[in-house]
């Protein structure tokens, strides 16, 4: 198979038309795109999602969800939808043009709204992601982040989203096509990745290209990947180091601003179509490609070879060939990487490998990473951004009823941590936050959520920058706590501590006299009396406080932090 490198259609208008359209679009109703929608829009506009011409119509959406095809029959496995709030959707008329803006308010495109509907999200979760289970990142997004209504319609591109980082490494499909044309690369194997590359990856990609007698494109995703992944800045610096290890002029790297869904088999087919659009002829699909990890029962969402099977079944129609990902291992006696299934003398040699989990553990604990496993430049980069856990920032998030003892324990913990020294400590106590950060808020569900999200935001910034944030709000709603956990876990550990003092005991203590007022109906929506509290199901620690000293409670938290490697036993 050789590539056809003719340009593919883009959705952009010419420069002059774009200037004019931009002025006109300033008067349109605007939708502020989410980070995921910006990624989707970029690939829609530059042809990465060819043959899509905009966000899916209702008919195309139904057909994609049910049959992996657009309503005209073309293969397309992933619903690319514009989700918005009910409130925004209500104000629109069918046929109306809207402006699509990035997060700074820059108009990137206009869209003619041809469709507006309320999707059956549970069905989308089942059919597209395989299960209606919030443990799947895309299902979680669907239920807990995406708006209730979808809008569909053709997009007119005005300008590309601006990227200030690694500009020279970002290529549209047509830019890559013309690069391949210029270089005479008629066969190109694409390697998709969201992880740093180590020696085994370098070996397997090099072999894959050699076997297909093709050139190699390292095509990492730098849009949105799985929560908790190494950030793309670090990864790209690592990739650049690895790029030098390939024979000159055989390999290139380009960054793909894709928002992954971690949809396993469907995602593999989607990735293949996107690479086809970028001018590639081959695509490496590995074991558990774009796998989201395990579901809420602890089982994998997809079988390990489901993605390969689905890709293989469609590769002819897609016009891009699958290359098997070889499981490469280090053979100590021969001091080289070999494909596991090609080693004949397995019993006579020492086979070495380090799993992703083991690598993370070694990085977290500052342990040695052998040279046979990775390149020193890569390890250095990873260590620079991921110091051992005992030097990273983290958040301790106390939750419990009013008067449960959260603030007192949090205070004691703060003092103990400050005594230890090493990292700055900030206490975001419920009452303090309500004075400074959330002074205008009341206790409706909406306001409580806003309050907790603000606390979460500040804590995530502290965590990101290597400090310790101690939060002590009531935080009564499980979904909000989960969202905060996700925000923070992107940067460091989130330690949820449920201060499990019973409501009866809190009411008996009634230190602020609020329970009395709540019983008398003088304070409305009072947690535990007239407003719900979702008991945390799996907190890192649950503290019983009755007849237990504050000092002891704080000490239990310290022990937990120590067992998690967050504070080092010096
Ligand atoms: S929340 O739900 O997490 O936003 O609450 P939080 O910011 O932690 O604020 C709780 C403190 O406000 C006082 N208070 C109330 N609590 C619960 N429900 C109602 N309706 C209410 N009205 C006022 C109460 O003193 C809480 O203080 P703590 O420190 O938890 O005892």
Automatic annotation (TrEMBL):
MF (Gene Ontology): adenylylsulfate kinase activity; ATP binding; sulfate adenylyltransferase (ATP) activity
Domain Sulphate adenylyltransferase catalytic: 170-384
Name of the protein in question: Adenylyl-sulfate kinase
Residue span, APS kinase domain: 392-543
Catalytic reaction annotation: adenosine 5'-phosphosulfate + ATP = 3'-phosphoadenylyl sulfate + ADP + H(+); sulfate + ATP + H(+) = adenosine 5'-phosphosulfate + diphosphate
Keywords: ATP-binding, Kinase, Nucleotide-binding, Nucleotidyltransferase, Phosphoprotein, Transferase
Pathway membership: Sulfur metabolism; hydrogen sulfide biosynthesis; sulfite from sulfate: step 2/3
Signal peptide: none
Residue ranges annotated for the ATP-sulfurylase PUA-like domain, each copy included: 9-159
An annotated GO BP: hydrogen sulfide biosynthetic process
Described function: Catalyzes the synthesis of activated sulfate.
Name of the gene encoding the protein in the UniProt record: cysC
E.C. number(s) listed in UniProt: 2.7.1.25
Entry-linked InterPro entries: APS, APS_kinase_dom, ATP-Sase_PUA-like_dom, P-loop_NTPase, PUA-like_sf, Rossmann-like_a/b/a_fold, Sulf_AdTrans/APS_kinase, Sulfurylase_cat_dom
CDD domains named among the record's database cross-references: APSK, ATPS
One GO term describing the cellular component: cytoplasm
Similarity comment: family membership: Belongs to the APS kinase family.
